[in-house]
Amino acid sequence: MIRYLSIAIVIFSTYGCASTPKDDTTQATPEPEVAVVNVWYATDRDSTGEENLKDYYGIERGMLSYGICQVAIGLDERITPFTDSTLWQLNADKNLSDPSELRSIKVIPRAEFLTQMQQAINTSNEKSILLYIHGYMRSFEMAAREAARLAYEISYQGIPALYSWPSRNSLMNYIADVAGVDWSVANLRQFLEDLTRETQGATIHVVAHSLGNRALLNALVELREDSKEHNLPWKLGEIVLVAPDFDRATFKRDIAPVLTDSGSRITLYVSAVDIPLLASKMLSAYPRLGDGRDGPTVIPGIETVDATDAIGWASGHTYHRRNIQVLSDLHYLINDHLGADERPTLQAVESPEGTYWKLLDLPTEETDEEEQ
What we know:
Layout: E1 33-47, E2 57-74, E3 89-92, E4 100-108, H1 110-123, E5 128-133, H2 140-153, E6 159-164, H3 174-183, H4 185-198, E7 203-209, H5 212-229, E8 236-242, H6 248-259, E9 265-270, H7 275-284, E10 302-306, H8 319-322, H9 324-335, E11 346-351, E12 354-359
Parallel strand pairs: 1-6, 5-6, 5-7, 7-8, 8-9, 9-10, 10-12
Antiparallel strand pairs: 1-2, 1-3, 2-4, 11-12
């Protein structure tokens, strides 16, 4: 069934030479600049005590903790034309070893975290929070880089945030990741309630990838029920489900009726070349929500985007990370709050189930290499 058995990863390296003036003194080469993105986070991973930032948070379950981490992104590594370096602190740095790199982690007590976040919201250009929830096989470090990269590429002007659940970051531990993400539902729901109750004047946008949707969708249903019963304000704006590894029939029956009645816009990205979702279907015996092999899932009140034609097999599951078409569409959705019928990146397609949208080709080809 799977015709493509390998992925070629091409790494391009560029080198420059120093110039020598007439007086024989060496002209110093300017150090490359990096954008430093502050990512506000909550996590229920264990704290390992390791000094190495990549290992500061582990793969086991832990207490819910809060903090701010900083991620450096090379300015010459941008993918979209929307990146705006004026939004971020810029540092000269010649030691950036990857296109993005985790530079610091600061743990902050809950009350102080929420106070500082409110102060950041008050001074931000966009009075909103963009919460990213990562998927399967991710470390905290990788998730922080993804959250920062998303905000950087779409030129987001609000508060970038991350929820990191205890993924074991291993190809062979999918079942353990399912258990880990299910365990995190209550903690994610608590974090969403914290943001809802304790921040003023801010809309909360959420982008969830892969298994992260499993925690998000269940947490949102609980939060929505509480918002009705206890008059909890509903501050969710854009809810974006990217390649969701979630049972399709369960979503239609239990989740969609709740979310489509919330007032939030729900956007679903699917693909017919998503190998991990095919594997998930084989393990669970039931189709996944983000798998478009049988045609895109079309549900009234939800805007479905078929990303199949815009991506390749190399990025068939992580197409929100390095694909210019997908990132451009997210820019118009999250920054400009444009519906699917308004975004210049999409074309409407009529199907027996209703209307869905396909990503249009853009002049620049996608970047397929995978960041590690």
